């Protein structure tokens, strides 16, 4: 079985979030199921610099106004097809925005080009390879099923929604330049509240839809979480599948991780204490026995970081310490910086992205806090389980699906792996933090929870099997 995966970022070549982790880890996991995956991604400057020997396998004389090539290469264990279009992708800044943080004005054209290239491959543009199915990730690739549909291709397609909040919405004026027939600007096409919706078009056109947890799949059929697309998603509920993400258990492995201070393989391994000591030293936290609560990720409203900031004084007064790594909303960044200044030794904040430090925080912190208002799946709590850091999570999306709350029944049965709370507000989070501190004060209970979490299967094994079954069903259906 041949599958073309289409994504705007792929770890470790380029990453801004969890989409890259999934796009990088799923293809190798699928190979065990007899599936050959090639990944189409944009030829950003940093991607081309890491390709080494790449071979041109197709040329576009006019791809949305520019010449472009498809390059074939292998990198980081992935079979890649890279869209080399310098006028679109050879730029300073990140995948979606310039160095000033402002989105590129032509993102609609850049990612329409990526999708059109995917449709061309599906239609047989490559001499020696044609996919049996196209798997598009998020809005940046979601137009691929649209181009395939209006080209009359019979190859099935799948769209995975990693976060419904990001939809790729653009003004109606761009439609004339998308190369689609006039009837595509309609309710069952790309028209969306008078404009053009890339994700909306993909959801309407794909053979099936997946999202990254069963709970989030249910949530996005409701107005509360559907972000204006709940009606369309309800209409396609029979084609909607929730499949929990996994993590790359070779990259995230405390027994061999070169980014941490000492390797370990069990909850009671003394080497884990060396990582705690290293984290305390790195972040200039007080060297005492108080629990260290960590947060790694984007500092945004969606992630509930305003609620964590509101709860910070209560956490410190209760005896806890807090370590933050991330970047995001300037007001939240400033708020956490001010808290670190006011509570030296009790609160530490690193603003930015540091992959190595994120591993050390998972290995050295006692607990990980994920207070998201909505969370399609979440990967950081899976990494926490793997590293023996007890997750404290909002009861939503994939967080609810992957963490077993430490209620009395779960504790008695020895299956608890963390703490859930709801709603996402300061009193609920404060209560969850207090529950965690009470458990931390009982070493046997805490060690048992950490051990149970470290036993959890957070790999791609089961999820890859589900994707393989879905692919086969869609291909057989035709």
Briefly summarize what is shown.
It catalyses: [(1->4)-alpha-D-glucosyl](n) + ADP-alpha-D-glucose = [(1->4)-alpha-D-glucosyl](n+1) + ADP + H(+). With 478 residues, this protein is of the alpha/beta class.
Task: Please describe the topology of this protein.
Blueprint: E1 2-6, H1 18-31, E2 36-42, H2 45-49, E3 55-63, E4 66-75, E5 78-84, H3 86-89, H4 107-122, E6 133-137, H5 138-141, H6 143-150, E7 157-161, E8 169-170, E9 191-192, E10 195-197, H7 198-205, E11 208-211, H8 214-219, H9 230-235, E12 240-242, H10 271-283, E13 292-296, H11 305-317, E14 321-326, H12 330-342, E15 347-351, H13 355-364, E16 367-370, H14 380-387, E17 390-394, H15 397-402, H16 408-413, E18 419-421, H17 426-440, H18 443-455, H19 461-477
Parallel strand pairs: 1-2, 1-6, 2-5, 6-7, 7-11, 11-12, 13-14, 13-16, 14-15, 16-17, 17-18
Antiparallel strand pairs: 3-4, 4-5, 8-10, 9-10
Helix pairs in contact: 4-6, 6-7, 10-13, 11-12, 11-17, 14-18
Pathway: Glycan biosynthesis; glycogen biosynthesis
Domain Starch synthase catalytic: 2-234
Keywords: Glycogen biosynthesis, Glycosyltransferase, Transferase
């Amino acid at each position: 079985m041949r599958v073309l995966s289409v994504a705007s970022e792929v770890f470790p070549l380029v990453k801004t979030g969890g989409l890259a982790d999934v796009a990088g880890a799923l293809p190798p996991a699928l190979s065990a199921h007899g599936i050959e995956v090639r990944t189409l991604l944009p030829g950003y400057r940093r991607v081309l610099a890491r390709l080494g020997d790449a071979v041109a396998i197709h040329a576009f004389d006019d791809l949305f106004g520019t010449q472009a090539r498809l390059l074939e290469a292998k990198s980081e264990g992935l079979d890649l097809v890279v869209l080399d279009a310098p006028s679109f992708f050879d730029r300073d800044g990140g995948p979606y925005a310039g160095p000033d943080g402002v989105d590129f004005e032509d993102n609609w054209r850049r990612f329409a080009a990526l999708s059109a290239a995917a449709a061309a491959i599906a239609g047989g543009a490559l001499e020696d390879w044609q996919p049996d199915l196209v798997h598009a990730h998020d809005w940046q690739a979601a137009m691929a099923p649209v181009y395939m549909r209006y080209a009359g291709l019979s190859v099935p397609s799948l769209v995975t929604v990693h976060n419904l909040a990001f939809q790729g919405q653009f003004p109606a004026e761009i439609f004339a330049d998308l190369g689609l027939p006039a009837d595509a600007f309609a309710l069952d096409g790309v028209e969306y509240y008078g404009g053009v919706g890339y994700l909306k078009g993909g959801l309407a056109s794909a053979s099936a839809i997946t999202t990254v947890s069963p709970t989030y799949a249910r949530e996005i059929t409701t107005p509360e979480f559907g972000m204006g697309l709940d009606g369309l998603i309800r209409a396609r509920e029979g084609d909607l599948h929730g499949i929990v993400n996994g993590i790359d258990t070779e990259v995230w492995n405390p027994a061999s991780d070169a980014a941490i201070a000492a390797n370990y393989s069990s909850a009671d391994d003394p080497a884990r204490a060396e990582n705690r000591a290293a984290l305390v030293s790195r972040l200039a936290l007080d060297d005492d026995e108080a629990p260290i609560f960590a947060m790694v990720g984007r500092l945004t409203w969606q992630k509930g970081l305003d609620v964590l900031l509101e709860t910070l004084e209560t956490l410190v007064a209760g005896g806890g310490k807090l370590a933050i790594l991330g970047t995001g909303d300037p007001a939240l960044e400033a708020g956490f910086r001010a808290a670190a200044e006011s509570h030296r030794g009790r609160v530490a904040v690193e603003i930015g992205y540091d992959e190595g430090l994120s591993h050390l925080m998972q290995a050295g912190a006692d607990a990980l806090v994920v207070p998201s208002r909505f969370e399609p799946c979440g990967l950081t709590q899976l990494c926490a389980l793997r590293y023996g850091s007890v997750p404290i999570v909002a009861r939503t999306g994939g967080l609810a699906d992957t963490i077993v709350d430490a209620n009395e029944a779960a504790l008695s049965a020895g299956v608890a792996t963390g703490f859930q709370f709801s709603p996402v507000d300061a009193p609920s989070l404060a209560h969850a933090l207090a529950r965690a501190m009470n458990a931390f004060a009982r070493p046997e209970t805490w060690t048992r929870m950490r051990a149970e979490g470290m036993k959890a299967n957070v790999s791609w094994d089961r999820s890859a099997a589900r994707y393989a079954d879905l692919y086969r069903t869609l291909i057989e259906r035709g």
